[in-house]
Design goal:
Length: 219
């Protein structure tokens, strides 16, 4: 493993699935499985101890479910990306996961390529949804209320943060935002952190939801 590997924690209460996915991911170039957990509460402790880049998280688990665990993890460590891997595909659960700070949502039964691509995309700052969910999520994001011209939303944001938020809402990655605004990646990361704090969001997905509801990203 190298210092540029994506550090991953796998969380699932079924031992066979947890160990199987860990073995699969650990055999891939550029991915290092640094920990596993069997429930949401254990996941929080494992993430605190290993500082991963991405957590692959089940939802229905004992002690603490995956959505609540995601809320705790993204609240404590905003830089950690969480990709849900679950059997649940109802809209309420998907949106609850997004609002908790999840960066992706896949259904169990997804192919190995889809899972590893989701991990790599999440680590790069993107949002990923399984093929059967993507259209529904896009429809939700597109359903925001158009903002008025008289009142600018998010008055606490700086002009730079507002520019970054508009591009986040349009689906841009951090690298794409930096290129479009002619600023460094560090400047974008700092702006994103400021956005999370001022909008009181758990992570990128929830910030995008708020921005879309305010009319950002619809131009």
């Amino acid at each position: 493993m190298t210092g540029t590997d994506i550090r991953v924690v796998v969380v699932d209460d079924h031992q066979i699935l947890r160990e199987g996915l860990s073995s699969l991911l650990g055999a891939l170039d550029g991915i290092e499985v640094v920990g596993t957990a069997a429930d949401g509460r254990d996941a929080i402790h494992v993430v605190d101890g290993t500082e991963p880049d991405v957590v692959v998280m089940d939802i229905q688990m004992p002690e603490l479910d995956g959505i609540e665990a995601t809320r705790h993890i993204t609240g404590r460590q905003p830089g950690v990306r969480v990709v849900m891997l679950t059997m649940n595909e109802d809209d309420d659960t998907v949106l609850s996961a997004i609002r908790a700070g999840a960066s992706g949502y896949l259904l169990k039964g997804s192919g190995a390529d889809e899972v590893q691509n989701a991990i790599r995309a999440a680590a790069a700052g993107g949002m990923v949804f399984g093929a059967t969910l993507a259209a529904r999520v896009a429809t939700y994001f597109a359903g925001g209320v158009a903002r008025t011209e008289e009142v600018e939303p998010f008055p606490d944001l700086t002009e730079r943060e507002r520019d970054v938020l508009r591009l986040l809402a349009a689906g841009r990655s951090n690298d794409a935002i930096a290129a479009e605004l002619y600023v460094s990646n560090k400047t974008v990361r700092n702006a994103v952190s400021g956005i999370y704090a001022k909008l009181h969001t758990a992570g990128r997905a929830e910030a995008i939801i708020k921005a879309r509801e305010a009319g950002y990203g619809r131009d």
